[in-house]
Write a structure and sequence with these properties.
The protein contains four helices and eight strands; from the N terminus they run H-E-E-H-E-E-H-E-H-E-E-E. It is α+β, with helices and mostly antiparallel strands. The protein folds into two domains: 87 residues, 2-Layer Sandwich (Translation Initiation Factor IF3); 97 residues, Alpha-Beta Plaits (2-Layer Sandwich). Helix 2 packs antiparallel against helix 3. The two termini are 71 Å apart.
């Protein structure tokens, strides 16, 4: 009897020990995330254009489509020759649109259907101007050579990438100043830099100025005046710091 009682007591103790060992240990409370500050800012820089794109068009009308196209080719050839004499290469001159379409005449009273009175041929060439000092002479040469329609002048800059990086640096500088002001107001200071990102770059829309459409009386005439002005390159960033 004594042996059985001792054995039962030992088994009970072991079972209680096993049950206590199986209980999960208490989990520590998750640490609070470190305090951070995020600032967004935009930076900008001013750029003076040094290049331009000019759309030059030749439009001709004739009784037949073939005649309109042939006349157009002659006038366009004269226009291109005039531009190349000023130093533009073939690589700087590219066709962007060509069309031949019926020219309809409509009945003012609306009693008869429109009829084809002839055909219109239109050929548009893009001229990439890399010296803005030549732009006025190029406009006049195109008009004198046979062009009779001209789009707006689009100005741009060869240092657009450099200007974008300057705007990014300006934006980060402004974001840091804003973050320091917020941290100081909260009774803290900036700690380690956590993240820097920029929004997708949106190139500035090319500045446009309509060229004065006038014929050139002689080579001594003053070239068409063109003022490119300036445009602004803008960049926006988001910067995150830890607070301490």
């Amino acid at each position: 009897m004594r042996i059985a009682l001792v054995l039962a007591t030992a088994l009970t103790f072991c079972a209680a020990g096993d049950a206590g060992a199986q209980q999960p240990a208490p989990q520590p409370h998750p640490a609070a995330p470190p305090a951070q500050v995020v600032a967004m800012a935009s930076g900008e820089t001013r750029v003076t254009p040094d290049r331009a794109t000019l759309l030059v068009a030749v439009e001709t009308r004739a009784p037949t489509a073939a005649k309109a196209g042939a006349d157009n080719a002659v006038r366009l050839r004269a226009t291109l020759d005039a531009l190349m004499k000023l130093g533009l290469t073939r690589e700087q001159l590219s066709t962007v649109d060509y069309s031949v379409s019926p020219d309809y005449q409509y009945d003012p009273q609306g009693q008869r259907p429109p009829r084809v009175s002839g055909y219109v041929a239109r050929n548009t060439v893009r001229a990439d101007v890399r010296k803005l000092d030549d732009l006025g002479r190029i406009i006049d040469a195109a008009l004198a050579g046979g062009a009779n329609s001209m789009g707006g002048v689009q100005f741009t800059s060869s240092r657009l990438d450099e200007a974008r990086r300057e705007a990014l640096a300006d934006a980060v500088k402004k974001a840091r100043a804003d973050a320091e002001a917020m941290a100081q107001a909260a009774g803290a200071s900036l700690g380690q830099l956590v993240e820097v990102s920029s929004q997708p770059f949106q190139p500035p829309r090319p500045m446009m100025e309509m060229a004065q459409m006038r014929a050139v009386a002689n080579d001594a005439a003053a070239p068409t005046p063109v003022n490119p002005g300036e445009f602004t390159v803008t960049a926006t960033v988001s910067v995150r710091w830890a607070l301490r």
